[in-house]
Amino acid sequence: MTTPLRPLSAVNALADALRRRVLSGEMAPGTPLPEQELSAQYGVARPTVREALAVLVNEGLLRRERHRSAQVVEVTPADLDDLMFVRRPLEDLMATALAGRRVEEADEALARMAALPGDAPWSDAVAEHMALHQALIVAVGSPRLERLYAMLAAETRLGLVRLRTVYTDRDVLVAEHRDLLDALGRGPVEAARQAVAAHLDHGWGTD
Length: 207
Description:
Layout (H helix, E strand, L loop, with lengths): L9 H14 L8 E2 L1 H8 L3 H14 L2 E2 L6 E3 L4 H22 L5 H12 L6 H19 L2 H8 L2 H10 L7 H17 L2 H12 L7
Antiparallel strand pairs: 1-3, 2-3
Helix pairs in contact: 1-3, 1-6, 2-3, 4-6, 4-10, 5-6, 5-9, 6-7, 6-8, 9-10
């Protein structure tokens, strides 16, 4: 069966389609992506498939070994624990810097998350979740903090895929982020820091 693509460049359209499948959890960690099968499924040439896969490898969503098909990256519980070990101090810096401020771009991401239809793929929630936290980091105005945070993006997104089993009710996810932004906006600094720490203290699901 051929899956039609939107009128973007074929490489970007295929990369977008595969990204959504990975971030929705449709493609589980370790799933191989054979070029020939993807070429037939999406009706594009193998060089197009190869370039699209390279985009996702570069983003950290896929890994590729010599003479083997690309595979969806597997992020283990130990990886996620270490990810949060690094994220917590970065987001604590963000909370300290932004206490008492509203960040318009973060509010806009929250509004988009809240507006998602009930049947929207989880990848859409992942995208807005990432956009909200990224907007807060960018608002600090530290290029180095932004670069450090960006290095964690791929593992964070793959971790968020697991949260679809935790947040079966999307409204709960929206409410938690609304509470976070309200706490940051109110301040003071210590309250903002505590709110961010509590927000990051969650499980990652079991599948």
